[in-house]
Write a structure and sequence with these properties.
It contains 27 helices and no strands. The protein is mainly α. Helix 7 runs parallel beside helix 9, helix 15 packs across helix 16 (262-274) and helix 20 (327-336) runs antiparallel to helix 21. It is globular, with a radius of gyration of 25 Å.
Amino acid sequence: MTKKEFKRAMLCGLGRCILELRETKDKEKYRDIVLWASSRNISYDVQCEGTRAWYVYEMICCYNDKTPFLDTIIERFLKTRSDNNWNFSHYCALLGYFSDDGDERAYRILWKKYKEILIILLHKRKKDQRLISMYEALAITLSGEDYESAFRVIKGIGKMLQKVNVYKWEDFLWANHCIPGIFEKSEFLWELKKVEKYSVDIRCYLEGMKEYDKKEAEQAVIRKKKNIEVKKKEALQLLIQENPRWRWAIMRLRNCLLEEGIEYQTEIANQVLSEADEWRKSRLLFVFADAQCPWPLDLSYLIPYVKSPNKKLREVTLDVLCYIKDEKVRKFALQNIEQPELRPYAIKMLATNYQKKDRDILMQALRKIPVHSHSETDDWHDVYNMVFNLFDNRQVKNPPKEILYYLYENTMCGWCRESYVREMKRRHILTDEIRRECKWDSNDEIRELVF
């Protein structure tokens, strides 16, 4: 394996990197790459797949002297600002693995940083969500040691909740969700309640949790009682305003469309056609960029928008076409698949309208989609998701397994790769080589799948 191949596979999270380090006689060849991975978050999407700290730590453990890696991690950890939480989470998790293996320095530095951030938060007059995120990363890492450490963290949250004018239980929702899950949740809460009478901080924490659960239950009842007309009105208002929740509004409106059926879908489609403002038109049209809620009117209404001078309207129209099953869409895709700016859309359209004779064209076009980690445009990610529907929706008989292998090999998203591996396993096409490297994949669900 060349260094370039090693780094690419590492950014994908493929287990072959760990296997290479465990088996090669020349580990030094890759030292600088592993050191580079130690010094930054290499996950494609931390929210979906978590950090790849376990994966990086396993590579570090292939070296006899782990000190240079630990030194780099600690240096970066101590310098990380609150506006770089993914890197901070990466360092926390890595230091947690060092600590679990008995490294006293990692253990002390984690608890020292925890106390520093807790003190800062306790003296804040206003909520600082970025600092809270750093605190939560530390809290989750440290809680995994034992009950005593978890209770210590819970007391810290309880202490902050006593500043009722600043913090609420839900401000620490990530930590409050993860910490009980580290243990047996019911047993953990039972143990907390046993020591509640001895600790004001834990009592405050449990009261905050009870209040949060009560409010959530009340909101669920309110949401259930809302009739669909109210939901539609709220979603439409948010959708056509400059509102950060517009994507939520689109999902809510789609749900209404699915619930009400073709009549209401047609009503919103006609509203798109009659809307004079192109910005609002593109927002409303985007509701139909969905496999379950495709454009309900004749295709001819959309074609003029493909050539609109308004870039946003053009892009949204192309997105909508990707979900329409129609021979005209397939022909449009075949005509435009060699145009670089239209290729991602054309591949998605072809995947939706796939025919057996399209196999080679689709495969060749797929190879021309560049894959980058943390790029400004992630065309490849959407393209891969749509192409995978050939396998996932069961509507194509005997889709080419070569495409599935290609997706597995090239995706940088560990979450998506898990779906590919599951599908290979379901179809009994998981090769011995893939199975072997999956045992060391960055995604723990993949590792469990093949054992």
